[in-house]
Write a structure and sequence with these properties.
4% of the residues lie in helices and 35% in strands. It is mainly beta. It is globular and about 50 Å long. Keywords: Disulfide bond, Hydrolase, Protease, Serine protease, Signal. One of its GO terms (cellular component) is extracellular space.
Length: 249
């Protein structure tokens, strides 16, 4: 999370055959999560060829046993699904707890309107797993928003990721980070972000001294709905000293 006030714009979209994804950012001003708290959170790993090891690239949200939501810019650069692997049940990347499930990717589906040079507002993608994940005490899909008009203003929300914890840092934390953040009205967002067009399909969130940073891309913004159910929103593709822009499902 950044030390200044940060806004997040989350584009609300229904996930059907389309995809949803995020950019690599870091959770600045966040804290270590407790183990087995965010059961939908996944790590997307990448290797340029079979001669290399897989390394963490972006976060993602498991919303069905074999489907994940992430940022388009995280995966659009490679047309080969074999270059990607997903780890579910991950908490501390330096320790094998036995909760982890490593699954290869069989398909990547980037939003058809995504333009890599601009990103916003279609920086979303779906990732198809080669096999279904096992639902365990450490791995459970998150519920998607029931409709694209659902409002989360003043609801409890959290941003998640393994990204940098400081905009000047060079070491990514091993333990998953979280930060509490609040959704605000699009009108307030437009007033503060006058240089960005705020659409009805956007969700804006704000929190002083907290925000995603490099390495958190693709991870989720999880908000509690009126039925006390957590719903995912995808991470930012854009980052500067003012805030971040999110694409959401």
């Amino acid at each position: 999370m950044l030390a200044a006030g940060i806004f997040f714009i989350v584009a609300l979209i229904l996930v059907t055959a389309d995809t949803a994804q995020l950019t690599n950012l870091f959770i600045v001003g966040g804290n270590d999560v407790t183990e087995r708290k965010w059961l939908h959170q996944a790590s997307i790993r990448y290797r340029p060829s079979p001669d290399y090891y897989f390394n963490h690239l972006c976060g993602a949200s498991l919303f069905k046993e074999d489907w994940l939501l992430t940022a388009a810019h995280c995966v659009a650069f490679s047309a080969n699904p074999d270059n990607f692997q997903v780890i579910l049940g991950e908490y501390d990347t330096s320790v094998d707890s036995g909760d982890e499930q490593k699954i290869f990717v069989s398909g990547i589906y980037v939003h058809p309107k995504f333009v890599e040079t601009s990103g916003y507002p279609f920086d979303i993608a779906l990732v198809k797993l080669s096999q279904k994940a096992q639902v365990t005490p450490a791995v459970v899909p998150i519920a998607l928003p029931e409709n694209s008009t659902e409002t989360f203003v003043n609801r409890e929300c959290w941003v998640l990721g393994w990204g940098l914890t400081d905009s000047a840092a060079s070491v990514i934390p091993n333990v998953l980070q979280e930060a509490n953040i609040t959704a605000i009205t699009n009108e307030e967002c437009a007033d503060r972000w006058s240089f960005i067009e705020i659409l009805e399909s956007h969700l804006c969130v704000y929190k002083l001294a907290s925000s995603p940073c490099n390495g958190d891309s693709g991870g989720s913004l999880a908000c509690r709905d009126g039925n006390d159910t957590w719903r995912p929103w995808e991470k930012p593709y854009h980052s500067d000293n003012l805030g971040h822009t999110f694409d959401i499902v």
